[in-house]
């Protein structure tokens, strides 16, 4: 089985996001970037399937400017075999990303395509679903367990108030939820080895993918600042304030 994992470069989740002064976008200047956490889980799952002998090759793909090669190298250090960067503007809309991924998946004859359930920068939660529809292949979103059973997959999904188990024929598209696994750290020797692993650069034109951005970002706003709290001296004072100032108690 060959696994294709789509990985996105995003702001590191530990960074406090700043908005540009003109509110046109998020300020990325000198900000630490990282592998999208759900993509990291997808890479980890692919590695576990390879380690258990159920997958033979893991190809990672990222669509964006040259900077995303850093995240591809991280995925190679974690255990992926090959990487593909599709040179394109950063932050293409999910439909364009899905169109490009479809072409890569077909060119690679991937049996399983793993994606994160969402990118933490734009919170779209769209790409996997669009890709499955464009490829006309089965999909399982929010996976918390993936088992390969011959030519099919058994996927447990996290849904509101419980779990759902699905069976589907490969090739299929799966998006990862937080509890699927706990990603490993890359060891120093593997980081060094990753520098020599193959990384190909392609363009959407070479892949025959149509890139059209039907979505325009009009602006972003930071959340309203929280007012500073106050210290109360007794439970009675707290109850009084909740009742008479905040008016949350009857
Ligand atoms: P989204 O639909 O933007 O929330 O992203 C869901 C998943 O699609 C991500 O976790 C990635 O697996 C994949 N994806 C989104 N954007 C890209 C990109 N630029 N390059 C590669 N994969 C991407």
**CATH architecture term:** 3-Layer(aba) Sandwich
Order of helices and strands: EEEHEHEHEHEEEEHEHH
Structural class: alpha/beta
Whole-number tally of structural domains? 1
Would you tell me the overall average pLDDT?
96
Q: Which spans of ≥5 residues are poorly predicted at pLDDT below 50?
A: none
**Helix share bin:** 25-40%
Sketch the major β-sheet.
Answer: 9 strands, mixed
Terminal CA distance reads: 62 Å
Write down the CATH class: Alpha Beta
The total of helices stands at 7
Q: What is the CATH topology descriptor?
A: Rossmann fold
Give me the CATH superfamily: HUPs
Features of the shown structure:
250 residues; alpha/beta; nine-stranded mixed beta sheet; two-stranded antiparallel ribbon; binds adenosine monophosphate
Topology:
Blueprint: E1 2-6, E2 9-11, E3 33-35, H1 37-51, E4 57-64, H2 69-78, E5 82-87, H3 94-108, E6 112-116, H4 127-135, E7 139-149, E8 152-159, E9 162-169, E10 172-176, H5 188-194, E11 199-202, H6 204-207, H7 235-244
Parallel strand pairs: 1-4, 1-6, 4-5, 5-11, 6-10, 7-10
Antiparallel strand pairs: 2-3, 7-8, 8-9
Please describe what this structure looks like.
- This protein is of the alpha/beta class.
- The chain has a single domain (2-221), classed as HUPs (Rossmann fold), CATH 3.40.50.620.
- The protein contains seven helices and eleven strands.
- Strands 9-8-7-10-6-1-4-5-11 form a nine-stranded mixed beta sheet, sandwiched between helices.
- Helix 2 (69-78) packs across helix 5 and helix 3 (94-108) crosses helix 4 (127-135).
- The longest helix is centred in the first third of the chain and has 15 residues, at 37-51.
- The chain is globular and about 65 Å long.
- It starts with a strand and ends in a 6-residue tail after the last helix.
- Residues 6-8, 36, 38-39, 61-64, 94, 97, 115-116, 118-119, 122, 124-128 line the site of adenosine monophosphate.
- Adenosine monophosphate binds at residues 6-8, 36, 38-39, 61-64, 94, 97, 115-116, 118-119, 122, 124-128.
């Amino acid at each position: 089985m060959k696994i294709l994992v789509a990985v996105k470069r995003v702001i590191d989740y530990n960074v406090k996001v700043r908005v540009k002064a003109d509110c046109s976008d998020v300020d990325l200047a000198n900000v630490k970037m990282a592998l999208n956490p759900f993509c990291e889980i997808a890479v980890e799952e692919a590695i576990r399937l390879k380690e258990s002998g159920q997958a033979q090759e893991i190809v990672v793909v990222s669509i964006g400017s040259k900077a995303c090669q850093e995240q591809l190298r991280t995925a190679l250090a974690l255990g992926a075999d090959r990487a593909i960067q599709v040179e394109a503007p950063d932050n293409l809309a999910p439909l364009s990303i899905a169109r490009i991924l479809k072409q890569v998946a077909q060119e690679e004859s991937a049996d399983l395509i793993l994606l994160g359930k969402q990118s933490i920068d734009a919170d779209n939660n769209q790409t996997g679903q669009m890709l499955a529809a464009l490829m006309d292949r089965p999909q399982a979103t929010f996976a918390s367990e993936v088992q390969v059973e011959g030519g099919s997959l058994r996927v447990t999904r996290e849904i509101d108030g419980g779990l759902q188990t699905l069976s589907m024929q490969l090739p299929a598209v799966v998006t990862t939820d937080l509890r699927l696994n706990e990603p490993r750290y890359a060891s120093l020797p593997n980081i060094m080895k990753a520098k020599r692993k193959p990384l190909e650069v392609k363009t959407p034109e070479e892949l025959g993918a149509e890139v059209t951005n039907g979505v325009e970002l009009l602006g972003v706003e930071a959340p309203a600042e929280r007012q500073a709290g106050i210290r109360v001296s007794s439970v009675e004072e707290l109850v009084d304030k909740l009742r008479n100032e905040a008016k949350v108690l009857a």
